[in-house]
User: Fold these one by one.
Assistant:
Number 1:
Amino acid sequence: MILVTGGLGFIGSHTVVSLQEKGHEVLIVDDLSNSTIEVLKGIEAACGTRPKFQELNLQNSLGVAGIFKSHKITGIIHFAAAKAVGESVKKPIAYYQNNIGSLLNLLAEIQTLDKPIPFIFSSSCTVYGEAKTLPISERAAIQPAMSPYGNTKQVGEEILVDTVKALEGFKVISLRYFNPIGAHPSIAIGELPIGKPQNLVPFITQTAAGLYPKLTIFGNDYPTPDGTNVRDYIHVVDLAEAHVVALEHVLACKSTDAYEVFNLGTGKGSSVLEVIKSFERVSGQKLIYKIGKRRAGDVIAAYADTSKANEVLGWKTKRSLDEAVSSAWDWEKKIRGR
Ligand code: WQD
């Protein structure tokens, strides 16, 4: 059984669908802090199978031990973490307790097993900060984290590097995501709009749905072709499929190193204005926006060198920016009952 922590979240739920479509049995553990139990129904609607579920905050070490006692866990994909950059600046202690404490509880259980099990860690391109060269490869320098959230990803990776050295046979893959967007084509699952959106694409679709009068573009005076920031927007289903490929890569003992890192992106940069144009193309409607001040902490440009995932995992994205933006808009219209 594959344990998917945070499996009711945006990327987690899409990964559970991909896992079940490949025949894996899944147990989701989630504390519902940033999701709802309804997502279980959505997962079932998307792929015909309802995964096992247990509500648990992974900071509860007894609860984590109980998971391993009651289930034969053969692999772990660990998403469960708080992930709001701005909130992490205001609540660093809660972020370290949750994100690092949860990881340590899982690892403490793994080391009690007769045979360690594969561990896929949800990391982020945020570890690169403002990379010196583009596209960004896995060899790029890790820059000092710009937020406690980003630091929990960096520290999480360091903990895993140390643990694989000490735990014979323990194999870990860290997946550094670029910018996940979109929704499953069934639109039975998508990015839940909990609170005011921080990210660009949910803000675009909620503005288009009339929840906000206009979108603010955070600066158009950057040294980029059109002055707006450039990012690598990856369809969440492409990202989900990469997790299954990575897990199966370790399960099939194809990993050459105990600890491997892969950047997951399309390999193509898109500016904020290009994403807006994509939305207008796929929706057929104009988006109202204004140019505002730069947002603190934004890097100028970040997009992935995907050659390592292409060559080692045999994985690359299949879906375009338009497909991803269109699926995000379909999801928005569905949840607004349009
Ligand atoms: C993208 C671009 C904004 C909103 C974040 C996290 C990162 C990772 C991915 C978890 C930027 C601009 C946005 C708006 C705008 N998450 N923007 N107006 O910041 O690249 O990455 O998500 O690992 O850790 O930081 O994504 O979608 O917030 O911003 O102009 O209303 O859109 O300035 O250039 P970001 P984003």
Number 2:
Amino acid sequence: MFDYERLELVDIEKEAPEREPERQYYFMKKCRAWAEEEAAGRGRPLTMSVQTLGCQMNAKDSEKMTAVLEYIGYRETEEPTADFVLFNTCTVRENANLKIYGRLGYLKNQKSKNPAMKIALCGCMMQEADEVEKVKKSYSFVDLVFGTHNIYKLPELLYSQIQSRHPVIDVWQEAKEIVEDLPGKRKYPFKTGVNIMFGCNNFCSYCIVPYVRGRERSREPEDILEEIRGLVSEGVVEVMLLGQNVNSYGKTLEKKMTFAELLREVNKVEGLKRIRFMTSHPKDLSEELIDAMRECRKVCAHLHLPLQSGSSRILKKMNRQYTKEGYLKLVDNIRKKVPDISLTTDIIVGFPGETEEDFEETLDVVKKVRYDSAYTFIYSKRSGTPAAAMEGQVPQEIVKKRFDRLLKTIQKISAEITAARVGQTFPVLMEEVNSQDASLITGRLSNNEVVHCAGDRSLIGKIVPVKLTESKGFYYMGEVQ
Ligand code: 5AD
Ligand code: SF4
């Protein structure tokens, strides 16, 4: 959120303030004055396209940057080209990187037709020195490059680019401070993500996130609660608490607080109806948290609990710090205490050294847990991670076959679970008009499943009872009751 009072007080005739967020407010105002002139010169408003790859964290960062750009004077457009094109990149798997270079190739052409166009790259991929070098060398038409730690500096960086008319590249190796009170532009007026922590300390051996997002830092609970109260006053009914490993929330705070304690506090916020959170690492999921989930009425009946592999041998090589048996025991415990919970997961196929037996252990866990749904990934080698140097990289044809087998097993179970819910009525938060059929509106159950029903847009943002009439595998058709 903007702190409008502080924003008003910033005087752009003076020197830039040192303090944040005032400093960025100052440059936002400076950029805004520039954008007004530009728009007048062109006889039309300036346009922007913010394109986001990757996870919920990136989506949240993009919401913040969109709000800043909007304040400056850019209007969102659906077109892939615009006066300002910002790519918020992901690097968790290699194909995300390839996608960006593909899109840049296309934009180069567009920029030759509109030389005033600005192209910016930020996010996880920019935290990798090799990628930044490649951009500098082969994509010199890119105007702005920054990383994950200085997203809040967008106004200052943009202003510096406007002034110098040269590319500005600023990537920090480490996070400095957590800057509060920058605005966010919500995709939906009634639900949004709220960062509760940044970074990750786990160093799973395949994962690049700890290198590009830095060490774990938690936000102060009061800042989080104040943000949520503010959001609720603006009409938000559902929040998703975001962190790479929310279960270790609070460990870096001076006044320690557990995630379970935070959840109980968020649950008390008046007017808030639903709470979700992401992502939970099984090794840190405490009994205390399971109790909080059971007792907090607003916490949704859904837990995303990444498995990654069902083989204890592979889990060890992945540095996940739990075993197959430990994971299954945890699931048992959760199901005992929160019987109606839906479980979803992430699984990687083809980790170095994965044998047929290891893969069958994964299938075994999938069959035992019976996930409502699962995200499945083919292992992608990320240079700089320990797994990239491991022996026994699995041949692609074998990986592909395992991947297809896994997908089939997951889909069959999902279909059985969803079919069993048909005929029952659940509260559904209505979210949008169906993109394919405007007579339908689409909403989500507490367990995050999607349902389409006949209805009009006046229901959007409301929680209404819906009877599930038909299961389509991973979504439902329903009737508003
Ligand atoms: N290869 C494939 N999948 C990966 N993930 C993270 N790193 C890799 C990688 N190198 C997956 C994990 C994680 C999800 C967000 O992405 O399953 O939970
Ligand atoms: Fe990556 Fe593991 Fe951290 Fe998740 S917990 S972000 S998989 S290192």
